Amino acid sequence: MTDVLKVEHLTIALRGLEQSGVILNDVSFHLNPGECLGIVGESGSGKSILALSIMGLLSQALRIHGGKIMFLGEELKQTLPEQWRAHRGRDMAMIFQEPATSLNPVMTVGQQVSEVLIKRLHMDRRQARDRTIDLFAKVEIASPEMRYNAYPHELSGGMRQRVIIAIALAAEARLLIADEPTTALDVTVQAQILELLRSLRQESNLTMMLITHDLGVIAELADRVMVLYAGTVVEIAPVYDFFNTPAHPYSRALLSSAPSMSISNGRLAAIAGTVPSPSEGYSGCRFASRCPVRLRYCDTVRPPDVILSPEHHACCHLLEQNTRQQAGHV
Known about the structure:
- The chain folds into two domains: about 5-90 and about 175-260, Rossmann fold, CATH 3.40.50.300; about 100-170, no CATH class.
- The protein is built from twelve helices and twelve strands.
- The protein has helices at about 45-55, 80-85, 100, 110-120, 125-140, 145, 155-170, 185-205, 215-220, 240-245, 250-255, 315-330; strands spanning about 5-15, 20-30, 35-40, 60-70, 75, 90-95, 175-180, 205-210, 225-230, 230-240, 305-310, 310-315.
- The longest helix is centred in the middle third of the chain and has 18 residues, at about 185-205.
- The protein starts with a strand and ends with a helix.
């Protein structure tokens, strides 16, 4: 079975600062057909940069310094932007976190969806209009015929996000990247959008990469979780293992800082310090300066990739030490 997406040792750096300005460092993962991979981490961890690199939308200030992005078995090269243009909107699509800035304010929302169908599926205008209205109904936009002629400012935030999802689904993309798709929405609308994404995924066997700060969203939608910290992958795990047996100290810190009804004193746990900037050099673990259980060599020696199961990996010196000790007692 061919992976829909396979990223191997991806490194992204500021152009001209390939040594001191690394944004993503040696990132590797894969996505199976129909799978949802949740990506979590604090702001500044590189989640959105990863999404933009997969879509071929990196700014001119950034470049892929190493590694591969394989989509449906084809390597996408930064030196061949026409490759990305051929796939973008047809085979891969993205939902951005702020729908108001993702839509053209001087075009009706119906025109913006129809434009994708005309360009990618070569429909005529009447066919595109009919298909757009069907898509609006599919994403549960009320009165889809009337909404076709609405401008973005005439719709609520939830409706605008549904239009963005309709655009993403217009050409029946194989891969959907959702970058904080519910951040700008109120709680009730968030639940509706999440339920919509879940049902669309089940209906179409859609492969999804979901970026979010909300661990509750990850618990609801994801099959596996990848934890990013300062541009590095610190843990990849099935969603059940991530929530029940998190292996990396950063993963445990993220989970402990999430709001919970069981907190008795009303105070949330916080992770001390801040995410380091790309310009801060390091030779060991990126999380070492904030880690409450770091070892003396965590600052200077790069942590190993500890394999806990075929689908559960974590990069941590302490984890390796504990695993070795447990193996010695067996």
